[in-house]
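#lab-general

N.A. 3:47 PM
ok so I finally got the sequence cleaned up, no stray characters, all 428 residues accounted for. can someone with queue access submit it? mine expired

B.Y. 3:52 PM
send it over

N.A. 3:53 PM
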Amino acid sequence: MVDLKSVGICTLGCKVNTYESLFISDLLKKNHYEIKEFEDLCDIYIINTCTVTNQSDIKSRKMIRNAIKRNRNACIVAMGCFIESHQEFVEDGVDIYLGTKDKSKIVELLDDFFENQRVIRDIESEEKNVFEDMYITSFSGRTRAFVKIQDGCENFCSYCIIPYVRGRCRSKKFDTVIKEITSLVSNGYKEVVLTGIHTGNYGVDINTSFAKLLGEIVKIKGLERLRISSIEITELDEEVLTVLKNYPVIVDHLHIPLQAGSDHVLDVMNRKYDLDYFKRKIEEIRKIRPNIAITTDIIVGHPLESDEDFLETIQTCYDLAFAKIHVFPYSLRSGTKSALMEQVDGNVKKKRARKLLDVSRELEKKYMDGFINKVKMVLTENHRDGYTYGHTGNYLHIKIRGIYERDQLISVRLVGVEYPYIIGEVND
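B.Y. 4:20 PM
back already:
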């Protein structure tokens, strides 16, 4: 083992990247490396990159260069989706280039680099068919635990580069998921978040299904909350909804990407549903979970989106009464079908994004108002300035008067909105 101990890790992008970085951190600790803050002076810097938008690319490059400037003698590891999608990328000072595969081999790659003092480019262009096993039993400094159950996507939405950089859908072994969550719960985690690139497509490659997995997870003794990071509307089938109906351990929150509130734009995006299907499915969900928070993603300014399409999107958001909208101005990704289409003017995209953010805030406040004077269980996360902060199962951000121990589920009466928080008082 090379006598270089300190590692700083920067994670960009999605919860899958967060999970993978935590696995890498845990693996390095087990191999006698010291994990420090990314901003510290370290011997090794690992940047786990993202490429979902142009801004993601810019930030990925920036964080790589920041690490090089911080310590020019450090070993710099650039890994993840940005590196996979920009295989021509070269930066003087980067020592190990790693795509979306073989992140679990980080110890061997570091040993190889320090032994041979050569730049390593381990970027697989071949098809990714095997799930890269990662297993975590604790999440330092985190209230909720993420479990990556799936990788890859085969939807090929016209705007999205991710299927090309993450590869085909592949799933973690069923028993391994159950074992990992059971271990996390036994280590004190009250909430587990299931995550993946295409989470609801779990099991398509291993002769099982997401519904069957949910049906087993909900039976794990001691699990207080189960959260799904994101799921496509087409994957909320009858079996999944039956589990949702029968097991309150699944929280009152689903994040379901809509992406556009216009059938014309949905068709251009190559999404797998129309508005009628989406609305009917939301009605089904609310029949079994009337108070559920349904949040969504929407892309504004996608190629060929007209003013009329955008106005229809706004009306759709009101009709569906989302609890929150994550708004993304369309970002051109080379290699996708949307990149070849007629583009919407940048100023128009910005204007539409601002408008939709206003709509989101209005809907969010309306949803919050519906819980005033109600009692909810809050999972405490941190405290400052005499208040404790945490989230309800339906992901309301609560600000509780007083200091309470972290990682506890406490009964709280919600007394008023102080956006983006709801003020709560412990219910004695």
